[in-house]
Amino acid sequence: GKYNGLGGKMDAGEDVVACMRREIREEAAIECSRMSLRGTISWPGFGKHGEDWLGFIFLIEEFSGTPLTHNAEGTLEWVAIERILDLPLWEGDRHFLPLVFDADPRTFHGVMPYRDGRMLSWSHSRIG
């Protein structure tokens, strides 16, 4: 019942850009021709058993192909940027999604600790 961006876990021997391209290809059947790293997020304690996760947040700026309307994980839908925060989102996503689409060209770096499946806090910085 929540919206979620496309992505996933890296395969052995893969860099983050290759991973993002593969995940988008697998989940939406499109080829990314231009994308930018908008941010990184450290999620201490986020995993099912309290594992720490590190995420790389990309903005796909250009692609080729016709996106799927659904895949094995659910329905795919294009949503206008100005409507994103009106959607049913995970609590933590509301904090970093505005940074993905804002006009600041600097990459953000955030930390969002979790305990027992709940977000505890959010902070971020930008340099440059």
Features:
four-stranded mixed beta sheet, about 15% helix, 2 helices, 8 strands, Nucleoside Triphosphate Pyrophosphohydrolase, alpha+beta, about 130 residues
Q: Overview of this structure, please?
A:
This protein has 128 residues and is of the alpha+beta class. It has one domain (16-126): Nucleoside Triphosphate Pyrophosphohydrolase (Alpha-Beta Complex), CATH 3.90.79. 17% of the residues lie in helices and 32% in strands. The chain is built from two helices and eight strands, in the order αββββαββββ. It has helices at residues 16-28, 93-101, and strands at residues 31-43, 53-64, 70-71, 74-75, 108-111, 114-115, 118-119, 123-126. The strands form three sheets. The chain has a four-stranded mixed beta sheet with strand order 2-1-5-8. The protein has a two-stranded antiparallel sheet with strand order 3-4. A two-stranded antiparallel sheet has the order 6-7. The protein starts with 15 loop residues before the first helix and ends with a strand.
